[in-house]
Amino acid sequence: MKLSAYYKSLEYEVELKLDYDNLNTYNKVFISKVFTDTYVPEKVLEMKNIECGGTGFFYDKAPPLPYEIEHIMPDYNLYNEWVNQKIMEGVKPKEFEYYTDYSIGFVTRGCIRQCSFCVNKNYKQCNLHSPVSEFLDSTRKYICLLDDNVLACKDWKQVFKDLQSTGKRFQFKQGMDARLLTDEKCDVIFNQSKWIGDYIFAFDNIKDAVVIEEKLKLIRKHTDKIPKFYTFCAFNHDNPDNYNEDFWKKDIVDLFERIKILMKYKCLPYVMWYKDYKNSPYYGTYVNIASWCNQPSQFKKKSYKEWCISDNERKGGNSATMRYYNQIAEKYSDIVDKYFDLKYEDLNEYQ
């Protein structure tokens, strides 16, 4: 959207391209992708009028946009034709709310954590990036922030003050750093801010369990809302090059343990896989756990065991869901005994 706005300001004609046809008829074609496994034809990448960007191409070494593009008001009209076409085809307008109802941008950039799996691992601090006014469309009802770690910014209070001054409801979509919560930050987030959607945090590593539990108690001191926690898995934090049987078992145990902690404090896990989950002998278990956790209506009512049984019945029996369940059950009875019957409504201490 920023690229579009910039080139329109130079009086170029700009359009959203949804295919790779006739690319040679354009002066310039910009291709961006977020994920490394998104396919782009090699012959397209060899064309002289093509310019690529985004983490999907460069991961942690993606070049930044030039200043005059990075700090321009996004072209929020770029997707209008595509959105209208999809709605005419029968897709519900709600599916496109981020295209139609939200101003989107970053008020801070960077992070202090340097997690080895993250595209932001080269940052050492979090700083102010742009004022809200830079990307705020006054006609749009809401604001979506994509900041990497806003709570690590020394100016976080000013950030929230500026957001509150818009009078619009807002959200931080990427997951806030729960380890940095304080009473003051909780009060600002849960009591002073006009929020929309989920309060999203992250619980990436079981080694943070003690501090995360302390912060969960702090959250519960300030709100009875149900936060969501991105729950990262299938990544070896201790040795990223070593994925053996012991690791895969431990990782599944660690994932269930984090889910158990979140259940206790009336929070929802949202399971996110590292790409190597596809190479796990228990690939299907990762799929099952995510399918269970990432459907709150199911997760709140059913244990993992109950969900697998009901999903198997829904699919007519003898489904992959049950085969994946049995693979673990037959090999690791200790995991079954400790975790498969855990229920959100039983463990939740904040009914």
Structural overview:
With 351 residues, the chain is α/β, with parallel strands linked by helices. The chain has 3 domains: 1-74, no CATH class; 101-197, 2-Layer Sandwich (Transcription Regulator spoIIAA), CATH 3.30.750; 199-351, no CATH class. 39% of the residues lie in helices and 12% in strands. The protein has helices spanning 2-9, 42-45, 55-58, 67-70, 80-88, 97-100, 156-165, 183-192, 209-222, 245-264, 283-293, 296-299, 304-314, 320-331, 333-339, 344-347, and strands at residues 29-32, 50-53, 102-105, 108-110, 126-128, 142-145, 169-172, 200-202, 228-233, 268-273. The strands form 4 sheets. Strands 3-6-7 form a 3-stranded parallel sheet. It has a 3-stranded parallel sheet with strand order 8-9-10. A two-stranded parallel ribbon has the order 1-2. Strand 9 (228-233), helix 10 and strand 10 (268-273) form a beta-alpha-beta unit. It starts with a helix and ends with a helix. The relative contact order is 0.07.
Low-confidence stretches: none
Helical content, roughly? 25-40%
SS field, number of helical segments? 16
- In spatial order, strands of the major sheet run 3-6-7
Count of beta strands: 10
N-to-C span: 44 Å
Layout of helices and strands, plus pairs?
Elements (H helix, E strand, L loop, with lengths): L1 H8 L19 E4 L9 H4 L4 E4 L1 H4 L8 H4 L9 H9 L8 H4 L1 E4 L2 E3 L15 E3 L13 E4 L10 H10 L3 E4 L10 H10 L7 E3 L6 H14 L5 E6 L11 H20 L3 E6 L9 H11 L2 H4 L4 H11 L5 H12 L1 H7 L4 H4 L4
Parallel strand pairs: 1-2, 3-6, 6-7, 8-9, 9-10
Antiparallel strand pairs: 4-5
Helix pairs in contact: 11-14, 13-14
